[in-house]
Write a structure and sequence with these properties.
Mean pLDDT is 88; it is low at 1-25. The N and C termini lie far apart (89 Å). The longest helix has 69 residues, at 309-377. The protein has a two-stranded parallel ribbon. It is an all-alpha fold and 426 residues long. Among the domains are: 32-141, no CATH class; 143-201 and 229-324. The protein has 18 helices and 2 strands. Residues 406-426 are annotated as: Disordered. One of its GO terms (cellular component) is mitochondrion. It holds the Pfam family MRP-S27.
Amino acid sequence: MFKILQILPKRPILKLFEPNCSHNVRTILSQAYYCEDVWNQRLSNPVLQKVNLDDLFYELDQRFNKTKQLNAIDIDVFANAIRDDSLCDELLDVVHKLRITADTCNTLESTSHAVVRVLLQSGKAEELINALDDRLNYGLFLDDYTANLLMDTFWKSKEYTHGARVASQLMLQEEVEHPLFCSFALLHCYNYLLNPTGWPEYAPPPEPEEEVKIRVKYLRNLYGDEHFDLRDGKKIVGKTLAIISKGKNDPLHQSFYVLGLALFGKPDLLRSFTSEVTKPLYKEVFALIPEESNVGEIINQLQTESIDLSNVLIENVKTAAQQTLESDITQQCDTFKKWESDRIQQLEAQKERLKTAKRLQSIEDINKALKEKEERLWFFENEETIDLAIESKVKYYPTRWFGPRRKPKEADASYVPPEVHTKQLG
């Protein structure tokens, strides 16, 4: 159970979601979409107000080192109680430690949202995206609302690579139904492909210098699922575009579907799809197809036209925002309230578990003390039984055999010891 102490905050509460970027570039979403006032209301909770973050982190670290166990509710309280950027590294550390414990399955949804907000307000976008990519070690997952906030912020800071990586997260989670997210994803992926740099490269492990042969029972065939095993940035962006645009009949999404299949390396699907296309598609999208993709013959068979693609994508995002803005804000405010009530319920449940464990330990200590007292009072009556119990606990180890005993050497009867003379000095 975390420790609660009354302290004053070290720094004033910072405004959330203010990345280090130029203020003359406007975000597409309004400030009302960020729901900062409702989000900051969590800090008025007495539990979060009384938490000493330094002491809580120390206690969590010591508990993990001793027992290798952490509670998901403690990590959620720690993440939501952070008010500044002084504990970002500690936050990622405890999130990672929770991930490798058994209680990771009970991680609260508000924990991931709090981690995203804290790292983004601290200007640690690179660390945030890397943690999102490393799902095995951190277990941070996005929802539609949080992904929209991230992509809107990255659009303002012109970090299109980060925006495309955020879009790929929901593609891997197969949650691409939200219209605003889909519009943002197309916008960021298009701008990333205009200048495809900054995507992390995953180098294969180096080959050993000396060939070492090991006998194994069987060989496992190499297999790639073309989903979680993807490492190439262009293939990931291609699959993101293909999944988002699949099944839509307007020229914009059909053009990006063709681009996605080309980047993903699916010429057969591309050939069957282009045979059914009747409308002219956009030339600016096809210009992003690399020459080494070998789909030029298929693309040349399509009718194309030119448009101002950047403005079309931005207007597409604005249209989707107008349709979903009010419903998203209302739903997210209700979600914040639900997270608050869930946190209180989890804390109460943890208190009950601790009380139960304390009572059980107290009963066990009393039983142990009574048993020791009974042994002292009835020692002479149960002396024989006690001796038998002690004897049963004695371990008898078998005698070790060191081989047949050697015969001692016989003394030589003709041996004459040397005479020793003392030398006189003087």
